[in-house]
Structure formats: structure tokens, C-alpha cells
Amino acid sequence: MSEQYRGRVAVVTGAASGMGRSMAAELARRGARLALCDVDADGLAETANGCRALGAEVETGVVDVAEYEQVLRFAEAVVARFGAVHDLFNNAGVGFAGTVSNSDVKDLARVMDIDYWGVVHGTKAFLPHLIASGAGRIANTSSIFGLFAAPTQSAYNAAKFAVRGFTESLRLEMLLAGQPVTVSCVHPGGVRTPIATRATGTDPGELAHLAQLFDRMARTDPDRAARTILDATARGRARILVGADAHATDLLVRVLGSAYQRPLARLAARLLGSSGG
């Protein structure tokens, strides 16, 4: 599938670390020209330097995806540099753990601003250019938590379910309008990235415990995740499941429907403690 990206201009948000960095590097190996952004200037520079070492032409921007004007300015800079945009990977995201009762509204809003509105902002800023390219592709990162809900993850669940709904609706709109843009929704399972260790939360002890659980359960290497995402995006897949846990969860929820919630509550009580945060 490497030829599917050669010479194309690909945008990756959240490119300073984790899956974003791995996707950027894999795109560089496949001959893409890159537009990378993140709020982490130092991490972004490291990613960009690594991609240049692989032979890629790279444009970077220190961008807060929660701020639409910043994303718009980045889109303008990318088009000024490359003249076109072909692929958009809306990947930036943050984690937060806390029950609804114990979470401040501002904490819930921060997750929505980055994880959901960041996807909306990226899509709105780049979609006209993707259409103009005549062969555009969008891959929006939801999560395994866009397939099922979990206690203490209400903010993250809400954002990732919202990304799923937004992305699936956008795909239908592109199909109905006959626009030359394929749209994919990405549902990674446990990928070994820093998202859990960098997450915020209402209870430091619980947060540390969740990070340890994530480290034990995250089985998918980010480079492998990147290859899966890029291959499936090139094929125009509507739903991209990353990791065996994502495939298993998708099947379980399809079979059980909402009945998954009671056994999950019992499992969470054992893993997290009966207080649930």
C-alpha cells in the first residue's frame, strides 16, 4: 500500500508523540509530503526531524486544535507550501478520568474541546482542499471507547462517541454529494502511547492505577497501529479497528447491545474498586 501515499500531501494532528508520530514516520517512509502539528513544540520538532531524515518534505505548526482560528491558519500555511492537501489524519487527543459527580464542567469541556472539536476544526479547515484535490481522504481518530462506555471515562466516551457520529455522518454526506473524499473512523484499542500517563483526573491515586492498568493491557505497538490505519484509509474503509481488543469489543457490543453494561460494571468494580472514582 506504500504507493497509495507517494507524492501526496498528508496532514497529521497530534504528531508530537504516540500514534501521531508513528503515522508521520510511516507516511514519510511511503513517500508522502507532510504537514504536522501539535501543541508540544519540542516533540513536534523531534517528529519532523525524524521524518526529514527519512527523506520527507515537512511543514510544521504549533497548533492548539481546540482553537479553530489556529487550525485555519495552519491549513492556509499548508496550502501555501504544498499547493494541495490529499490526506487528513485528525489524531490529536487527551485523556481524563473521573466520575460525572466528581468532575468539574471545565474538565469535561477540555476533553470535548480537544478530542471532539479538534476533529471538527481540522475537518472544516481542510475539507475544501481535500475536495479540490479530487482524491481526498479523511481518517478521524475515535477510540475503542467510541464503541462502548466505561466508568470514570464519561468525558472521553462523550468525545469519542461524538467523533464517531460526526465522522459517519460526514461519510454519508460525501457519498450523497458524490464528492471525491473518502471518510474513515478509527477505533484504536490499547495502543502503547503516552495518553494514559499524560491524562488528568479527579483522583491522583486512581489516575496512577488506571495508567498501570493501561500499560498492562495495551498490546498494540504504535508503529503497527500506524500501518493498520494508513492501509485501511487508503482502501477507504468506513470503520478502522486497531488491535485485537478493538475487534473483540466491536463484536461483543454488536452481539450484546446495551446488555454489556452490567458485566462491565462488575469487572470495573474488581479492577477499579467499588467506589468507581
Give the SSE layout:
Blueprint: E1 9-13, H1 18-29, E2 33-38, H2 41-53, E3 58-62, H3 68-82, E4 87-90, E5 96-97, H4 105-133, E6 136-141, H5 154-177, E7 181-188, E8 200-201, H6 204-217, H7 222-234, E9 239-242, H8 244-256, H9 261-272
Parallel strand pairs: 1-2, 1-4, 2-3, 4-6, 5-8, 6-7, 7-9
Helix pairs in contact: 1-2, 1-7, 3-4, 4-5
Structural overview:
By secondary structure, the protein is an alpha/beta fold. It has one domain: Rossmann fold. 52% of the residues lie in helices and 15% in strands. It has helices spanning 18-29, 41-53, 68-82, 105-133, 154-177, 204-217, 222-234, 244-256, 261-272; strands at 9-13, 33-38, 58-62, 87-90, 96-97, 136-141, 181-188, 200-201, 239-242. A 7-stranded parallel beta sheet has the order 3-2-1-4-6-7-9, with helices on both faces. Helix 2 (41-53) links the parallel strand 2 (33-38) and strand 3 (58-62). Helix 1 (18-29) packs parallel to helix 2 and helix 4 runs parallel beside helix 5 (154-177). The longest helix has 29 residues, at 105-133. The radius of gyration is 18 Å and the shape is globular. The termini are far apart.
Q: What are the main properties of this structure?
A:
single chain; 277 residues; alpha/beta; Rossmann fold; seven-stranded parallel β-sheet; two-stranded parallel ribbon; 52% helix; globular
Q: Portion of residues in helices?
A: 40-55%
Structure class: alpha/beta
Helices and strands, in order, run as: EHEHEHEEHEHEEHHEHH
The CATH superfamily bears the name: NAD(P)-binding Rossmann-like Domain
Largest sheet entry: 7 strands, parallel
| CATH domain class name | Alpha Beta
Number of domains: 1
Molecular shape: globular
CATH topology: Rossmann fold
